[in-house]
Amino acid sequence: MNLKIWFHSRLLGRKIGRYSYSAFRIVSSLPAIYNLFIVVFTLCRWALAEGYGACLINRPELVQDMVKQVKHQVEDPRFSVSIKIRIHDDLTRTVDLCRKAEATGVSWITVHGRTVEERHQPVHYEAIKIIKGSLSIPVIANGDIRSLKEAENVWHTTGTDGVMVARGLLGNPAMFAGYEETPLKCIWDWVDIALELGTPYMCFHQHLMYMMEKITSRQEKRVFNALSSTSAVLDYLTDHYGIDWTS
User: Fold this and answer.
1) Sheet bearing 162-164, strands edge to edge
2) Other CB atoms within 10 Å distance of the CB of residue 225
3) Residue 138: closest CA among 163, 160, 165, 105
4) Which residues make Cβ contacts (< 8 Å) with residue 230, sequence separation at least 6?
5) CA of 161: how far to CAs of 97, 222, 247, in Å?
6) DSSP H helix total and E strand total for the chain
7) What integer pLDDT is reported at residue 223 of this predicted model?
8) Burial of 36 (0-12, 13-18, 19+ CB in 10 A)
9) What is the predicted pLDDT for the residue at 24?
10) Which residues, in sequence order, are bridge partners of residue 81?
11) Contacts by 40-49 with C-beta closer than 8 Å and gap 24+?
12) Which end of the chain has the smaller Cβ count within 10 Å, N or C?
């Protein structure tokens, strides 16, 4: 199995101690892990106020050091270390950041095509295309991809080596299978997996809220989102979708 480990930038952004590097070394030794993903991206207000998260795009030397120190802890030369970033208003600064990361040995870069200040504005796919043309390593495009068709369009528009999807897949895990909305079979599978693994209720419920966004009315959302126990969720799904979880 191949897995990705996401080390959140609040762990890495302002101070990286020897314990963090030890964690990288331990994780990279696991047989199923092949990539460490440094997220220089988060927009959480407390992270930005502390000067890390997405603010790190303004500190390319620190990002370089983060990549260098992480790679130093990984003995397997086949192991990859990647970063995810937002863009600057002045795109030359983003290109400079990416080139410095590339020179330090980062394996690939994911670019979310918005600035730190932008939230729901259109994604700057042309900016991602320029960054891709400035680097030799793989570049992955990210931002506002909510269907398989959009994924293909973004891939062709940016000329990148691939696309990364976040919220689109939360809302429809079957997106890359060509579904426009989450099929009931996908919901059934998630419930089976969550029950088998003992997934905490908040995570279990939140994922169902995402997955059922397009297939429920506003009133149904109010009712479902207010449920507070696994048994209540199972009863709701049984009553509304005829799913027998005891069989």
Assistant:
1) 3-8, 33-40, 80-85, 108-112, 139-142, 162-164
2) 13
3) 160
4) 195, 201, 204
5) 19, 40, 44
6) 12, 6
7) 97
8) buried
9) 52
10) 36
11) 40/9, 40/13, 40/83, 40/84, 40/85, 41/9, 41/84, 41/85, 41/86, 41/112, 42/8, 42/9, 42/10, 43/116, 43/119, 44/10, 47/9, 47/10, 47/13, 48/116
12) C
Residue 45 has pLDDT above 80, yes or no: no
Beta bridge partners of 33: 3
Written as six digits, the tokens of 5 are 């480990």
pTM score of the predicted model: 0.80
Q: What is the pLDDT of residue 3?
A: 36
Q: Which CATH superfamily is domain 3-165 in?
A: Aldolase class I (3.20.20.70)
Q: What is the pLDDT of residue 9?
A: 36
DSSP label at 123? Answer: P
Measure the N-to-C terminal CA separation of the chain; round to a whole number of Å: 30
User: What percent of the chain has pLDDT above 70?
Assistant: 76
The answer to which of 41-55, 62-76, 232-246 has the lowest mean pLDDT is 41-55
Please report the sign of the dihedral spanned by the C-alpha atoms of residue 227, residue 228, residue 232, residue 234: positive
Residues 28, 74: contact at Cβ < 8 Å? yes
Encoded tokens for 77: 């030369």
Dihedral (C-alpha) 61, 67, 71, 72: value to the nearest 10 degrees? Answer: 30
Cβ(8)–Cβ(40) below 8 Å? no
